């Protein structure tokens, strides 16, 4: 954009010398540069990954270590919070709200389920969760989060990684749990009929699980999984915008070069026009030398013409410079090469 301003300035400075055609060409090029610059700024804004990062943070939930509650949803019990897959099935009140919330439903410990190591090798040392006010949930989430980071091999997350992770979760949720694996739309382990809900109790018909309910419409029942897919879309759009921004920058550079060429050619035009004096066209070849009767005009046509008068008085003293003419003929015969 700065170069476009320079081009306009150059056009203004040379306005007295530039032809109308050159000025118009420069103005058109400058407008094209400004238009592309506007588009470039818009694409650069789209190319930022802020949207995807925001969606991923929402999907994960509160940052580990923060004192923020894992959920602000008011719940009465673990079963109400995490869902019931059996008779009178009901989606958990925090089911799918965030990865953090679901981890606590599956792996968290409380006074009823006080086993410290449920998920993998993670042994929770934080105090038991009180579900009525979600006390101690943030501390347990930090332990689970930190344990997951140790097992993660990803250094750069791509949109393909996000989609693959969501597909794996959906397949796991559809695989079934409980008696004859009849309970679907859930993660974790249901026991028996699941009628007692995801209560965290290792007795009949309960379990350490989270129940999402059947999916309705296009939106996933697992809210955080939908946010991950939206983040993947956002990342791909940002990548396309970055590619378009690069192409726009290249086009701006080409237009700037074109403007420079037009400006240089227009600036050189007055010098070329110096061959015209007093409205009389100067000769374009040696045969016209004799038409010149003024010493100054003849010398301007050197080396094609040569003034042979004894002084500078007007007269038929401008003759063809035979040596220069021979060189010109030789060059013409060899295609103009020296």
Automatic annotation (TrEMBL):
It comes from Trypanosoma brucei. Residues 305-338 are annotated as: Disordered. Residues 309-322 have a biased composition (Basic and acidic residues). Keywords: Cell membrane, Glycoprotein, GPI-anchor, Lipoprotein, Membrane, Signal. Its main location: membrane. The lineage of its organism: Eukaryota, Discoba, Euglenozoa, Kinetoplastea, Metakinetoplastina. It is found in: Cell membrane. VSG forms a coat on the surface of the parasite. The trypanosome evades the immune response of the host by expressing a series of antigenically distinct VSGs from an estimated 1000 VSG genes. InterPro entries: Trypano_VSG_B_N_dom. One of its GO terms (cellular component) is side of membrane. Residues 19-253 form the Trypanosome variant surface glycoprotein B-type N-terminal domain. It is a lipid-anchor; GPI-anchor. It comes from the Eukaryota. This is Variant surface glycoprotein 3501.
